[in-house]
Amino acid sequence: MTPAPHRSHTDDLLSFIAASPSPYHVVASAAQRLEKAGFRELRGTDDWTGATGGCFVARAGALIAWYVPGGAPTHTPFRIVGTHTDSPNLRIKPSPDTGTAGWRQIGVEIYGGVPLNTWLDRDLGISGRLALRGPDGSPRNRLVQIDEPLLRVPQLAIHLDRTVNEGVALDRQRHIAPIWALGDPQEGALLRRVAAAAEEDPADVLGWDLMLHDIQPPGYLGVDREFVVSSRLDNQISVHAGVTALVEAATGVEEPRYIPVLAAFDHEEVGSGSETGAQSPLLERVLSRSVSARGGSGEDWSRALSGAFCVSADMAHAVHPNYAERHDPDHRPLPNGGPTVKVNVNQRYATDSTGIAVFTAACERAGAPWQPFVSNNAMPCGTSIGPLTAARLGVTTVDVGVPGLSMHSARELCGADDPAYLAAILGAIMTG
């Protein structure tokens, strides 16, 4: 692989992230790319009988997509890439209007593991979806994305807090209400602004799933632009790589041995316990139905699952130059050294030697490097959707991810070459 494809892939990743400030936008962006490649959306109420080729199911912030070549036996094993669409952020409360001391503010909740200091003094927009009254009275959804500097969580001046550099934690309740205007709070002002951006009548808004996002666009960093800096690298790097790999697997292999699958779940950052999370039966039901829709039996479903393999792709930690002691002394991944294979013997990651063997063989076929990662045993280890998928489906699973710095920050960093390495490896896994 040459630097040119790396940069082309990463340029496309930056466009994907800029268009996807919420999980719902991630799904819309992925669906748009899949449809352009010839995939078609299947709804739960549709008749799936005989469905082959490229298909996907979109549900809120989750997407399951797969490709079945014509003539593939109904017991053909799956090669699954699991990712997640959500990122830690600040989410707007149902009754958001508030304020104090003459400032208009909005109420937000903390979603996931947010380093709150990284959200201070950043220009913030609003994104997500509105639930609207439909023509027949049933609800309909509308995406909204306001890439304007509407809000800000202001830092207290150092003159008023001389302890600010001593690691004093923010009061989670008092100090995260963003400001967005002067004057007394006006009931419904935020709703009117968001509805106007969506070109909808505020009276038709029945509910919302809205969140804040940093409007600074993604970009490159470094003398040779060797780093990527952006919001939501965790985990849109993996979603984008998975979509890229699936499209290539659907068009570039004459005699596929597997059915490639992309499973992009929501709510991973808060435990995956929702109808669209990895703990739900969503993936299992979709794949099982895809087998039966092609005339497969329960035995065919069991055979397809028994021969399946899953790679859970989620962001990983690069060694931090200022806190190297926080990392395992013998496992210190660096940017642009390739994706990491994440190992934890306590099953916070689902990786075992069989999974490593499949992954490293794919790296060899893709001509891409990889690095091992083990958390420092002196502190708790994070986890991902890998163990959940392995436990629910009973398939061999390996946890991998692009190494980066500032994970969960409002602006994260990774190597500019690693996203393309990941996509190439996932493509090699999907096609076998």
Outline the structure in words.
The protein folds into two domains: 3-87 and 231-431, Zn peptidases (Aminopeptidase, 3-Layer(aba) Sandwich), CATH 3.40.630; 89-214, Aminopeptidase i, Domain 2 (Roll). It has a nine-stranded mixed β-sheet, sandwiched between helices. Helix 1 (3-18) packs across helix 9 (418-431) and helix 4 packs across helix 9. The chain is an alpha/beta fold. Helix content is 27%, strand content 28%.
List keywords for this structure.
9 helices, Aminopeptidase, alpha/beta, 9-stranded mixed beta sheet, 5-stranded mixed beta sheet, 432 residues, Aminopeptidase i, Domain 2, single chain
N→C terminal distance: 19 Å
What's the CATH superfamily of the largest domain, by name? Zn peptidases
- Name the shape in a single word: globular
- The CATH top-level class label of the largest domain: Alpha Beta
Can you summarize this structure?
This protein is of the alpha/beta class and 432 residues long. It contains nine helices and 20 strands. The longest helix is centred in the middle third of the chain and has 20 residues.
Give the arrangement of secondary structure elements.
Layout: H1 3-18, H2 23-36, E1 40-41, E2 53-59, E3 62-68, E4 78-84, E5 89-100, E6 103-111, E7 124-133, E8 139-151, E9 179-182, H3 189-197, E10 205-214, E11 219-221, E12 227-230, H4 233-252, E13 259-265, H5 282-293, H6 298-306, E14 309-313, E15 316-317, E16 340-343, H7 353-366, E17 371-374, H8 385-393, E18 396-401, E19 403-405, E20 412-415, H9 418-431
Parallel strand pairs: 1-2, 4-13, 4-14, 14-18, 15-19, 16-17
Antiparallel strand pairs: 2-3, 3-13, 5-6, 6-9, 7-8, 7-10, 11-12, 12-20, 16-18, 19-20
Helix pairs in contact: 1-9, 2-4, 4-9, 7-9
